Amino acid sequence: MLRSKKIKEILGLNRRNQEYIRPLNSPSSKKIADNKILTKKVLSKEGINTPEVYKLIRTKKQLQFLDFESLPNSFVIKPNQGTGGNGIVVLYGKKKGQTAWIRPSGEIMSTKDITMHIENILEGRYSMGSRKDIAIIEERVKTDPFLKQYSYKGVPDIRIIGYNQVPIMAMMRLPTKKSNGTANLHSGAICTGIDISSGITTYSMHMQDKSLISDSYEMIDSTLDLKENKKLAGIQIPYWEQILEIAVKCQKASKLGYIGVDIALDAEKGPIVFELNARPGLGIQVANQAGLRWRLEKVKDIEIKSMKHGIRVAKNLFGGEVEESIEAISGRKVVNINEKIFLYYKTPVSKKKNDPQNREAIRVFVDTGLITSRINKTLASRIGFFEAIKYFYSLPIPDKFESFKDAQEYIDSNQTTIIGHPDILRVAKIVEEGTIKIRPVICVHTKIASEEKEIEMVVTEDTTYNVVIGRNELKGYLIDTSKTFT
Length: 486
Fold this sequence. Notes:
Elements: H1 13-24, H2 27-34, H3 36-45, E1 53-57, H4 60-64, E2 75-79, E3 89-91, E4 93-94, E5 100-102, E6 108-110, H5 111-122, E7 135-138, H6 145-148, E8 157-163, E9 166-174, E10 190-194, E11 201-207, E12 217-220, H7 240-254, E13 258-266, E14 270-277, H8 284-288, H9 292-299, H10 307-318, H11 322-330, E15 333-336, E16 338-344, E17 359-366, E18 373-376, H12 377-394, H13 404-418, E19 426-432, E20 435-448, E21 451-460, E22 467-469, E23 477-480
Parallel strand pairs: 15-23, 17-22, 18-21
Antiparallel strand pairs: 1-7, 2-3, 2-7, 4-5, 5-6, 8-9, 8-13, 9-10, 10-11, 11-12, 13-14, 16-17, 16-20, 18-22, 19-20, 20-21
Helix pairs in contact: 2-3, 7-10
C-alpha cells in the first residue's frame, strides 16, 4: 500500500477514465493501441523496433494448414486484441525429439494444445468484448543478459506512463514462476518502481492472491523463484535515455494523449516495444510508492517543445530523490556520472589527519566502458608521481604498436626494466590518440562518496577529464546518469 500521506496524490480509476483516457485518447488512437498488428505497422514507420511476426492466423481453416515443423524452438503466441496479458503463451524451448514446446512452468504444450489455444484466441476468449480475434505467433525476445538474472524464464519489460509528451512514471515488471514467463502483474509478476531521472529501481511489490474487493500488494526486496534470489533495489536499467525517447515517440506516433508503453530489452536489438496501452493500469503507483495524480497535474499546462524538452521536464520534476531512497533500500552508495572526488598527495603536506592540504578535489568522469581508471600525466606528476613518470618516459619504449599482441610481447621481454621504479605497479596496453601504446599504472589514494580507497590508474595523456573512473572501482556503487550535464 502507499504511504498514507500520499493518498491525495493517488490517481483513481474514475479520475483516470474521466480526465485523461476519455478526453485525450480518441477512438482512432485507441484502435492503434488495441490492435497489436496495427501497432507494429504504425511504430515501424517511425523506426521503432517491435517483435518479429512469424505467423498470423485469422481463421480455423488457416490453422489446419499450420506447419508446426516450421516454427522455431522458442516463440510467443498472443491474441491481437487481448487485454491485461490474457491469452499470451511463452514457449521458450522445444521438447527434444518431439513436436512439442516447453512453457516456463515446465508444462509441455503439444501441437494439439497449441491448436486448442489458438482456436480460443480466434473465438475471442481473450479479446475485449469477446470479439473474434487474430492469433499472432511472434519471436520470443532474447532478454538482455543483465536483466535476465532477475527474471524467471521470461522477458522483463518496462512500463512508461506518458502524458503531454512527458514520461510521468516508470516501472519494471519481472516474470515469476507463478506468472508463467509473462510480465503480467495479475498473473503473479513482480513490479519494481524506477526513478524517472536516473533509471534506477526503487521499491518492489508482488500482488497477493486475488481479492473480491480490490488488488492488494505486498512489499518485497528480492526476486522470487530463482536459485539465488537477488536484491531488486538499485538496478541501473540499461539504455535508460533511449527508453524514455522511445516512450515519447510512441505517444506522438499513436496520438494517444495518455499512454502506457511496454518496452523490453533484447540482447541483440536493444529496446523493443511490446505494446501500447490506451488504458494503463494504476499498480505502477504502488511500485513507485508515489501517486500519478500530482505528477499529471504538474505537467498539464506545460508547453512541451520537443522530445528532449519533455524528458528534461520529467527528470527535473520527478527525479532527484533517488539517492536517499536507494541508499536506504539497498545500502549502496550513489555516484553521479560526473562526480567530485579527492586525490591524496603521495607525500602529505601536513601531519594532521584529514587536513585539506593533503588532498586535491577533482571533478571526474565515471565510465563503465573502461576497466581500469585513468589519470592525466600532469595531474599524476603534481600529486607525487613525478619521478615515476619521468623514469618511465626516459625508457626507449616504442611510441606505438601495430597490435595488442605486439605490445604484450614487448612487455614480456622488458618486464623488469619497465616496472623498475617502485611507484609503477605494472603497465597497461591502451589505445591513446588512436594508436596502441604502453602506459604505466600507479596506485592513488582517493576518496569517493565518503569512502577512502586505493585505486589503480593508468597514466595517460589522452583524457578529456583529468581522471576517469573505470568499472573496477564501481562495485557497490550505483551510477545516477541524470546529473550528466550539471
